[in-house]
Write a structure and sequence with these properties.
This protein is α/β, with parallel strands linked by helices. The protein contains 6 helices and 6 strands, in the order E-H-E-E-H-E-H-H-E-H-E-H. The protein has a 6-stranded mixed beta sheet, sandwiched between helices. Strand 2 and strand 3 form a beta hairpin. The two termini are 19 Å apart. Bound molecules: guanosine-5'-diphosphate and magnesium ion. The site of magnesium ion (MG) has 5 residues, from helix 1. GO terms for molecular function: GTP binding; GTPase activity. This is GTP-binding protein YPTC1. Keywords: GTP-binding, Nucleotide-binding.
Length: 177
């Protein structure tokens, strides 16, 4: 949990997106640096949160990444999940247009709880090891609507660009606060 004394260098980032886009796998890549199969393990309901330290401008910054705990399946993410969050990773699967189009629903779900004026969204097209079925133009348009330039392609399966994109988000958050 966030401590008021160090609030200027701690950031809470929540994972959002449809079931199956790879949020828990992505979280586990950040935590363990390896692919973990969520299908046949207790991980399938999602895990809790992790702390990751990043050095930004020679200062140590703490990022807390929160997985959903599986509540997104029933649209039951609690206000507590969003509380004090600074940013959200809006995750879709690059090979499933529907999960991209559905991001608006997750934005609205966050908007009910967070202060949208200072909240940061980052788009993450996960499963980049599979064919891209979403047009670049649609992704650019979505970024414009959200007022963000943070848009990444990652593979939580191979690990490609997962840690890099996460750390870029943390850099951005720290440099704009
Ligand atoms: P969540 O419901 O969003 O938490 O999704 P999971 O992390 O449980 O992943 C759902 C399924 O997608 C699992 O079978 C994962 O192994 C698979 N998956 C996750 N990330 C990737 C990826 O980058 N590439 C591929 N090909 N499969 C992935
Ligand atoms: Mg999950």
């Amino acid at each position: 949990q966030k401590m008021a004394t160090a609030a200027d260098s701690e950031y809470k980032i929540v994972l959002l997106g449809d079931p199956g886009v790879g949020k828990t796998t992505w979280f586990l890549q950040v935590r363990q640096g390896e692919f973990v199969d969520t299908e046949n393990t207790a991980m399938s309901m999602g895990v809790d949160h992790l702390e990751h330290k990043v050095t930004v401008d020679e200062k140590e910054v703490k990022a807390y990444l929160h997985d959903t705990g599986g509540g997104e399946r029933f649209r039951t993410l609690t206000a507590n999940f969003y509380r004090h969050a600074d940013a959200a990773i809006l995750m879709y699967s690059v090979e499933d247009r529907y999960t991209f189009e559905n991001l608006q629903e997750w934005v609205e779900s966050a908007a009910d709880v967070v202060d949208m004026d200072s909240f940061v969204f980052a788009l993450v097209g996960n499963k980049s090891d599979l064919p891209l079925e979403v047009e670049h133009e649609s992704i650019r348009a979505r970024c414009d609507i959200l007022g963000t330039q943070l848009s990444f392609f990652t593979s939580a399966k191979t690990g490609d660009n997962v840690m890099e994109s996460f750390e870029k988000m943390v850099h951005y958050l720290h440099r704009t606060r």
